[in-house]
Amino acid sequence: MGGQTVVVFTGQFDVTADAVIVELERRGTPVFRCDPGAFPSTVALGAQFSGSWTGHLRTGRRAVDVADVACAWWRRPTPIEVPAEVPHSGWVRAEAVAGLRGILAVLPWLNNPDDIRAAEHKPLQLATAAQVGMRVPTTLVTNDPGEARAFAETHGPIIYKSMTTGILDGDQVIYARPVDPATLDSGVAVTAHMFQQKITKAYELRVSVVDGNFFTARIDALTDKGRADWRADYRNLRYSVETLPDDVADKVRRFLKLRRLRFAALDFIVTPEGEHVFLEANPNGQWAWIEDQTGLPIAAAIADALEGVTHD
Questions:
Q1: What are phi and psi of 270, to 5 degrees?
Q2: What is the pLDDT of residues 188-205, one digit of tens each?
Q3: Largest CA-CA distance found in the chain, in angstroms, rounded
Q4: pLDDT of residue 184
Q5: Does the pLDDT of residue 1 top 60, yes or no?
Q6: What is the 3-state secondary structure (H, E, C) of the chain?
Q7: What confidence tens digit (pLDDT) does each residue in 44-90 have?
């Protein structure tokens, strides 16, 4: 395509997207922001194929030409919903998703939404990390209490980690936490659980990668709660800028190439012996607070990627 407009697909409140949009607007780059969750109620789509796709996406008084998209960024959009009272609402929603995402699939992307969905699978991440030579924790996914207890006996101490956002009703968050084997009872059978061998930490790294450019922040947790999962105690974290060793960076590049990602936020444990242990890679991870704490220019790097700017 070769257009000029950057399209950002996200919900109404997204401070991470806001930071990049402000940077793009500062540069004079046209930006079209849209929440696909508003389709088909308040977002209009019209596209025609005759050798190539032409058409528009319109929200309110603003519109973007499909052929004028330089790059699209799938950030944190809300899901498409159709009121239950609409006749055949399930079919209507399925057609809306297929139509909108079908047209969006032809756009040039920072990370293609289909690749994001595939890369979000934690088991696939661990397999890919091991494939490129990273150390990963020994892991079990099960709903069998007996298997969970056997895993704890063989590989303990172990921790439990949610495979999704870990957000329950009422905004309660499930953080990574140590597991007492005595608690591995029939409750395990309710759903799939992911257990991992506990890795001794010296500190952790959050590594944001944009088109091969690395922005590495060291995270030191000052409390036991934060050391178990730093997301559980943001107030007692200390940040500093680190450099990822070349051999680890090479493995990360191979990981991202296999998963077809131009951007990802990866988490590592660094052991007291200095070994880097892969935890996970979020293809749509948060980073704005890392930039605030460290000054790492991640927003500018993403703006460059969306504009098609390359760095030697």
A1: -110, 120
A2: 999 999 999 999 999 999
A3: 64
A4: 94
A5: no
A6: CCCCEEEEECCCCCHHHHHHHHHHHHHCCCEEEECHHHCCCCEEEEEEECCCEEEEEEECCEEEEHHHEEEEEECCCCCCCCCCCCCCHHHHHHHHHHHHHHHHCCCCECCCHHHHHHHCCHHHHHHHHHHCCCECCCEEEECCHHHHHHHHHHHCCEEEECCCCCECHHHCECCCEECCHHHCCHHHHHCCEEEEECCCCCEEEEEEEECCEEEEEEEEECCHHHHHCHHHCHHHEEEEEECCCHHHHHHHHHHHHHCCCCEEEEEEEECCCCCEEEEEEECCCCCHHHHHHHCCCHHHHHHHHHHCCCCC
A7: 999 999 998 999 999 988 999 999 999 999 999 999 999 999 999 99
* Six-digit token string for 280: 């996970």
